Amino acid sequence: MMTMIAKRRASLPVKVGGLTIGGTAPISVQSMTNTDPHDLGATVSQIESLANIGCELVRLAVPDQEAADAIARIKRAVTLPLVADIQFDYRLAIAAIAAGVDKLRINPGNIGGAQRVREVVAAAKDHGIPIRIGVNGGSLPRDVLARYGPTAKAMTEAALAQVALLESLDFQAIVLSVKASDVHRTIEAYRLLAEASPYPLHLGLTEAGLPERGLVHSSIALGSLLLAGIGDTIRVSLTGDPLAEIGAAYEILRALDLRAVGPTVISCPTCGRCQIDLAGLAKEVTEAAKAYKQPWTIAVMGCAVNGPGEARQADLGVAGGKGEGLLFKHGKPIRKVPYQELLAALLDELAKMAAQ
What we know:
This protein is α/β, with parallel strands linked by helices. It folds into 2 domains: about 15-255, TIM Barrel (Alpha-Beta Barrel); about 265-355, Sulfite Reductase Hemoprotein, domain 1 (2-Layer Sandwich). Helices cover about 45% and strands about 20% of the residues. The chain contains 12 helices and 15 strands. The protein has helices at about 40-50, 65-75, 90-100, 115-125, 140-150, 150-170, 185-195, 210-225, 245-255, 280-290, 305-315, 340-355; strands at about 15, 20, 30, 55-60, 80-85, 105, 130-135, 175-180, 200-205, 235, 265, 295-300, 315-320, 325-330, 330-340. The model has no long low-confidence stretch (mean pLDDT about 90).
């Protein structure tokens, strides 16, 4: 398959628990819990749910000492590497490290002066964990903001200043991010940072909004960067249930042929020629396909215009007709099936493929 994706930017590998970010490792998918950080049961349950649908790294807000202390218990109950999100209080970073967190995220806009960062770095070095320098376009350091204004250049300079401090302390286990809510500024900041630093990049668009808006804006920002070969781990930030972020992230990677985890279900937009409930069928097939990890393509098409051609190119597919559908497998028609039996027939063939 011809691809327009640039060669992936070379970056230094960083270990986060059992996961590698950067280097030659696959682009990883992550999210962040939105449960009360003091509610151990709810947080563990959400992390397990995220892990079950493919999340590979999860971040937790650490607003106080109680939340930092809870990390040790959460870590014993889950398998995913944990990232402590630290804002304002450097002492919470040190407490999270002591509790066994796998990675820190600090914000240079509010973590404090160089001496506080030195203390955090010393603790991270002692425990062998990496630090993500997470620059947020809405909370830049005052000196950088005064010099450059709220620009991509300011975000990049804030990240590089913190990198220089960590490197001066002989610390290189670094991951970088420069997120804004604006698509253009985010893309420009990551491009500048990719040219200026060898460390792996965590891609994201902050405050992207509710799913309808957030999916579009995140796809444009992350997709543009990934097409340019930039990015080592991604989070699609959406307001609401974080489980929605995982499927969205994998769809972006799948669309660019960067990762294939589970089947791809393609379906036509429908028109007046369609004589079956294609939307309902496609939804049911998509849900059922989540049970499989194989990178198959499943085509659910509504009529004879594009249907047979698309279905023939898929591993498994159906082209709809009047009250019936034609089932295809590996490009060859198998049989016609009444509409009422179409879903069962397609799922039966899917199970046979898995068994083989």
